[in-house]
């Protein structure tokens, strides 16, 4: 998947990694909600994780251009 910048030891990769780590936390919360049968919490946490990961990609692309 082309995300607009090269992964490696640079600032855009760090920005993306930070957002991806936060998204993983929300995926864990989604898993806990899903295990408890709470579909609303599952959907909300999955949406939040997806949006945070997407913001990480966009922020990484912006940082790579500067």
3D structure, described in words:
With 66 residues, the protein is an all-alpha fold. The protein has helices at 11-35, 39-65. Helix 1 (11-35) packs antiparallel against helix 2. The radius of gyration is 14 Å and the shape is elongated. The protein starts with 10 loop residues before the first helix and ends with a helix. 14% of the residues are buried. Keywords: Membrane, Transmembrane, Transmembrane helix. The chain crosses the membrane at residues 7-30, 42-63.
Give the percentage of residues in beta strands: under 5%
Unreliable stretches: none
Number of domains: 1
Sheet/helix structural class = mainly alpha
H-E order: HH
> Which word captures the global form?
elongated
Transmembrane segments: 7-30, 42-63
Keywords: Membrane, Transmembrane, Transmembrane helix
Top keywords for this entry?
2 helices, single chain, 66 residues, mainly alpha, 79% helix
Quick rundown:
79% of the residues lie in helices and 0% in strands.
Topology:
Blueprint: H1 11-35, H2 39-65
């Amino acid at each position: 998947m082309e995300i607009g910048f090269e992964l490696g030891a640079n600032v855009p990769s760090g920005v993306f990694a930070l957002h991806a780590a936060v998204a993983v936390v929300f995926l864990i919360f989604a898993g806990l909600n899903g295990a408890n049968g709470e579909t609303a919490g599952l959907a909300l946490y999955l949406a939040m994780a997806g949006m945070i990961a997407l913001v990480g990609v966009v922020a990484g692309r912006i940082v790579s251009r500067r």
